[in-house]
Design a protein that fits this description.
single chain, alpha+beta, about 25% strand, five-stranded mixed beta sheet, 5 helices, binds tetrahydrodeoxyuridine, Cytidine Deaminase, domain 2
Length: about 130
């Protein structure tokens, strides 16, 4: 099984467990770390709406808890007629653990619709260089 296929299956499995009683919008995310490990996450909503978290947040937290800090590839899976892209906050979260080579796969149930880089998703990002000033 190739990496994209495995990432898709993991994101799909996580998405099935999304806790979405308020938006009814299920999202799954899966990561392949630079170290070669796979992680996944789903969105988890809360009756106090701002306490909810995105699928990407869960997958990144799982990766960090597993001891890895570099995303080689991340696949985000959601359903919609248009291309679904990560929210602004998740772009910043992905950026923290990405390199210019990190592949970000945007998928729906039919498969990956687009693969992009963090520079495309978050141009002019706030980054380490800004704190060094
Ligand atoms: N959501 C994600 O999981 N990832 C994103 O990048 C965008 C939004 C979730 C949050 C909320 O549970 C639902 O989708 C609707 O916004």
């Amino acid at each position: 099984m190739n990496n994209i296929h495995k990432l898709f299956e993991l994101a799909e499995a996580a998405r099935k467990n999304a806790h979405i009683p308020y938006s009814h919008f299920a999202v799954g995310a899966a990561i392949l770390s630079q170290e070669g490990h796979f992680y996944s996450g789903c969105n988890v909503e809360n009756i106090s709406y701002p306490c909810g978290s995105c699928a990407e947040t869960g997958a990144i937290a799982s990766m960090v808890a597993g001891g890895d800090t570099q995303i080689a590839e991340i696949l985000i899976l959601a359903e919609g007629s248009e291309l679904i892209t990560p929210c602004g906050a998740c772009r910043q979260r992905i950026k923290e653990f990405s390199s210019p080579q990190t592949l970000i796969h945007l998928a729906n149930s039919s498969g990956v619709q687009k693969t992009c880089t963090i520079a495309e998703l978050l141009p002019l990002a706030f980054a380490e260089k800004d704190l060094m000033k």
